[in-house]
């Protein structure tokens, strides 16, 4: 599952198949608009991420999900797609979990570990 949802693995796949990196925002957006295969692959990946987050939010009955990591460097257009897919997953359930991207981007895990260490005085 780690490789399946890992944005690093997904980005490497894009580099191999399309000679494109997610950090090349301008070309990334342009190819998304013009290449159906690329658009389908990206939408499928974003939907899988959203489905996973929705399932976790249901299982743990979360009030809010904040997602981050490498995926948070994508254009806001694609982050909105994750939110849309997430809410579609929850639409036929009683759950009203909110979702948003972290403002900490890829540093979120470091801040989380620091807060955990501080809370436990480790």
From TrEMBL:
It comes from Mesomycoplasma hyorhinis SK76. Keywords: Kinase, Transferase. It comes from the Bacteria. Belongs to the ROK (NagC/XylR) family. This is N-acetylmannosamine kinase. The keyword Transferase applies. Pfam families: ROK. InterPro entries: ATPase_NBD (IPR043129), ROK (IPR000600). GO terms for molecular function: kinase activity.
């Amino acid at each position: 599952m780690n490789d399946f949802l890992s944005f690093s693995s997904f980005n490497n796949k894009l580099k191999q198949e399309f000679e494109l990196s997610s950090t090349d925002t301008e070309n990334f957006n342009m190819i998304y608009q013009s290449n159906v295969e690329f658009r389908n692959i990206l939408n499928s990946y974003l939907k899988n991420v959203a489905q996973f987050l929705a399932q976790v939010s249901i299982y743990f009955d979360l009030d809010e999900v904040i997602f981050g990591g490498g995926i948070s460097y994508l254009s806001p257009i694609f982050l909105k797609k994750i939110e849309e897919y997430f809410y579609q997953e929850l639409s036929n359930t009683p759950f009203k979990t909110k979702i948003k991207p972290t403002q900490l981007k890829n540093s979120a895990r470091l801040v989380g570990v620091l807060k955990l260490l501080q809370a436990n005085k480790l």
